[in-house]
Amino acid sequence: MKAISVQHVHKRYGELHVLRGLTLEISKGECVILLGANGCGKSTLMRCLNGLAPHDQGDITIFGQPLNHLSKAKLRQLRRKVGVVFQQFNLVQNVSVFQNVLYGAMGQQRFGLLSSLACFASNDLRERAMASLERVGLAHKAHADCRELSGGQQQRVAIARTLMQDAEIIIADEPVASLDPKAGKEIMDLLLDVVAERQLTVLCTLHQLELAQQYGDRIVGMKAGQIVLDSPRTDVALATMQQLYQGDVRVDQTSAPATDTTAIPSIR
User: Fold this and answer.
1) Where would I find the ABC transporter domain in this sequence (predicted)?
2) What's 98's DSSP letter?
3) Fewer Cβ atoms within 10 Å of its own Cβ: the N or the C terminal residue of the chain?
């Protein structure tokens, strides 16, 4: 089954044509690393995928359900299956780590926010929150305020919050951009380990090409609102990835140095 299917999608903001007939498919359980320079349309694509920005033309389906034909109620239900890990963590800084993780279950509860407050949460929710914190190695920080944590620890809390959501798809928007290299690798290791354990589908944007060489099943590259590179990670040369951040719109095999024996990916 295709977890995500994007077919000939266009998105405009006034006269700015951001997504230009973009097509992308991601299978259930697959991890795709999305690369591209700032302004190429990556963030817009991610907003379209979780329903935050309606697309103008084309079709987007999540587990076979077309986003542009769902009622608001059905769209809310579908969005519960899509967890987002942000670059800036999006935590409530002046409340506890435990409470931030509980917020991840808000969309599942009959009374929403009220049911996810620590003072009203059920024993089941509280146990799940502690188990999520244990999984990311922060159970001992449950009662600390998030503002007391390092950047790497805060991103671990954000991952634990996503685990509470019971999402089936993880959209990670530059999850290590705010971290130093050591913390960034630790977060990527943790995120991909959790994904493998739960057999989740992942679309993760990165700018760190050295990390892109190590993680995921496929490398997808964007330029000017289109997919110009889509190939298994092990087939993509570093020089090919670097071309995504240069001026030419099209990536081709001339990007690979003559001494590089890595196969050149197919280009779309």
Assistant:
1) 4-249
2) H
3) N
Mean pLDDT taken over the chain: 86
Contact 138, 160 (CB under 8 A): yes
CB 207, CB 213: distance < 8 Å: no
How far lies 238's CA from each of 205, 221, 262, in Å?
A: 16, 12, 9
Residues 136-161 pLDDT 10s:
999 999 999 999 999 999 999 999 99
Q: Which pair of structure tokens corresponds to residue 96?
A: 């506890």
Q: What tokens does 20 get?
A: 């230009």
What whole-number distance in Å separates Cα of residue 31 and Cα of residue 196? 9
The predicted pLDDT at position 265 comes to: 36
Rg (CA), the chain: 19
Instruction: For residue 62, count CB atoms less than 10 angstroms from its CB and return exposed for 0-12, middle for 13-18, buried for 19 or more.
Output: buried
- Is residue 120 pLDDT above 60, yes or no? yes
| Cβ 57 vs Cβ 8: under 8 Å | yes
